[in-house]
Amino acid sequence: MKRCRPHIRWALAFTFALLASTAMTISAQADTVTLKANLQPSSEVPPRVSKGHGILDATFDTDIKLLTYTATYADLSGPVTMAHFHGPAPVGQNAKVQVSVEKNALASPMKGQATLTDQQVTDLMAGQGYFNIQTQENPTGEIRGQVMPSSMSWQSELACWMLQKSMRSETAKPEIDVQRTRAHTSRRVWLPRVPRGWRLEDVRDGSM
């Protein structure tokens, strides 16, 4: 079995230590997860042709399972008729409605709150939910975006970067200095002139 080099083992140990420290820090702080979705017509299934765009910003309180959200949008084909959270579904698939936005809150920015079930929490934290805004011209949805957790600490980012850098250095091929190699091989090697009648072997052996 191939053993890891020392710098790889050090990077792995440092990565796990940072991640563990991050997890302890998060658990000690308020249990709030930040979520985000980029709402685009190209994310609809099938994709829509529209100039519409939007952003969903949300937070989830894990203690009371409360989702709080704000969605802003612009340049849609017409007034918003409905908006929902859907799931569970990955990018490129459709799913049923999980949370509906109130009819009186459809204007931008639309704001609201919802208490989630355990299954809805599991799907949301796994990135298996999306936010969908519908219009009269696009009754199944004009802009959509996958809702993903966006709160990643600098410790986690640093740990992932260090691990990736160590793995790249392990598999990288050594670079060859072409110019230096050419300069070295182009040097002339001068051999001593051997007098007539002498043999090179005699000179080499020191017998002459």
Q: Can you describe this structure?
A:
The protein has 208 residues and is of the alpha+beta class. The chain has five helices and eight strands; from the N terminus they run αββββββαββααα. It has a domain of 120 residues: Immunoglobulin-like (Sandwich), CATH 2.60.40. It has an eight-stranded antiparallel beta sheet. Strand 2 and strand 3 form a beta hairpin. Helix 1 runs antiparallel to helix 3. 24% of the residues are buried. About 8% of the residues have low confidence.
Name some characteristics of this structure.
single chain, about 210 residues, alpha+beta, Immunoglobulin-like, eight-stranded antiparallel β-sheet, 5 helices, 8 strands, about 30% helix, globular
Which secondary structure elements does this structure contain, and how are they paired or packed?
Elements: H1 6-28, E1 32-39, E2 53-61, E3 66-74, E4 80-86, E5 97-100, E6 110-115, H2 118-125, E7 129-135, E8 143-149, H3 154-171, H4 178-185, H5 200-205
Antiparallel strand pairs: 1-2, 1-8, 2-3, 3-6, 4-5, 4-7, 7-8
Helix pairs in contact: 1-3
